[in-house]
Design goal:
Elements: H1 3-16, E1 26-28, E2 44-56, E3 64-78, H2 82-98, E4 109-117, E5 125-139
Parallel strand pairs: 1-2
Antiparallel strand pairs: 2-3, 3-5, 4-5
């Protein structure tokens, strides 16, 4: 399995284990139509692998490389006080990801770099997007 896949899997596992202040009822890597979710499936999120940059950080017989990959988390909440629910979901996801910035020892850093909301356009559902950037080092040919 590739490092990209392993990190994505770790993010899914981490988000699935969240319990406070929000428990995600649905976490997947497959996009879904939030309008087709039952009330019992909220809050929900999906994770998408995104762009990655790679560069050599050493040379010689064994080239070491730095990879920086972005993951996009798209989340949805439903109910009353949508703005509060969105903010709680954002906070819960960030705190959950911060609990292990190494993604199980594979990466050396994980950071939430961007957060956005639907700003009320999906009412009575609230949407959030988060960009998570993960940095890792690998030997060339071993991704």
């Amino acid at each position: 399995m590739s490092i990209r896949e392993t990190i994505a899997g770790h993010i899914i596992t981490t988000l699935s284990a969240m319990t406070s202040p929000v428990t995600l009822k649905k976490v997947t890597r497959d996009p879904f139509d939030y309008e087709r979710l039952s009330n019992a499936q909220f809050p929900a999120a999906w994770v998408q692998s995104g762009d990655e940059t790679r560069e050599d950080i050493s040379s010689g017989a064994s080239v070491r490389r730095l990879g920086i990959i972005s993951y996009r988390i798209i989340g949805f909440v439903k109910g009353t006080n949508i703005d509060t629910a969105r903010n709680q979901l954002i906070e819960a996801i960030e705190e959950s990801l911060e609990s292990d910035r190494t993604r199980g020892g594979i990466a050396f850093d994980t950071q939430v770099t961007d957060v956005g909301t639907d700003e009320g356009t999906l009412d009575p559902i609230g949407g959030i997007t988060m960009t998570v950037r993960v940095r890792y080092i690998y030997n060339q040919g071993a991704t």
